[in-house]
Inverse folding.
């Protein structure tokens, strides 16, 4: 009786491990899609590059100016951020302007961005701040400025993108330096820039 009982126990022990061994030998489903890797999320981006602006506030100037434009953006969430934009333009795109003006601007505002397709992202922004016109005798030479624009980014890697952007910035300068600031006129200057974006 005892012998039968011991044989029964010895038979049960291997039987307990058979399902476990069978489970370990099951091959993974090769047709299952691999888990998608989430893209890293960055809170800041810095962009810099070539910039162009027209100079409609300068009388008889036939050609716009080229220079540099840069911006720093702080993102909150997936679609919204706040940006600071600075630019300095000093070189005319061709000779023929009667004077040698320069334009620099510091602007701030909200930016809304989203993925358009694949590696292509788009954004729109509203900017407010100030603009300064130098190299001429206009008074005043600093004006409140603001406008709206947008652009597109082409993603090269998680950190780097190429950017093309443009906007229309309105400002109020005197039309004639002899007005001495008493007769301001509204001007709109189109801007364009091409550069590199670094996210961090």
């Amino acid at each position: 009786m005892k012998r039968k009982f011991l044989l029964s126990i010895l038979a049960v022990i291997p039987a307990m491990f058979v399902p476990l061994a069978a489970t370990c030998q099951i091959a993974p489903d090769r047709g299952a899609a691999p888990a998608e890797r989430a893209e890293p999320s960055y809170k800041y981006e810095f962009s810099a590059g070539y910039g162009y602006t027209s100079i409609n506030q300068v009388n008889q100037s036939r050609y716009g100016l080229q220079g540099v434009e840069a911006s720093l953006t702080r993102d909150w969430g997936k679609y919204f951020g706040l940006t600071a934009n600075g630019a300095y333009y000093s070189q005319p795109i061709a000779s023929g302007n009667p004077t040698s003006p320069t334009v620099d601007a510091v602007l701030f505002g909200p930016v809304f961005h989203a993925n358009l397709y694949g590696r292509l992202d788009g954004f729109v922004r509203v900017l407010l701040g100030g603009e300064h016109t130098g190299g001429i005798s206009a008074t005043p030479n600093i004006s409140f400025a603001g406008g709206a624009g947008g652009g597109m980014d082409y993603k090269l890697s998680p950190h780097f993108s190429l950017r093309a952007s443009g906007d229309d910035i309105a400002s109020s300068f005197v039309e004639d330096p002899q007005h001495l600031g008493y007769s301001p006129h509204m001007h709109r200057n189109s801007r364009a820039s091409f550069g590199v974006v670094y996210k961090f």
In short: The radius of gyration is 32 Å. The beta strands are 44-53, 65-76, 80-92, 102-117, 120-134, 142-155, 160-174, 184-199. The chain has a mean pLDDT of 84. The chain has one domain: 44-199.
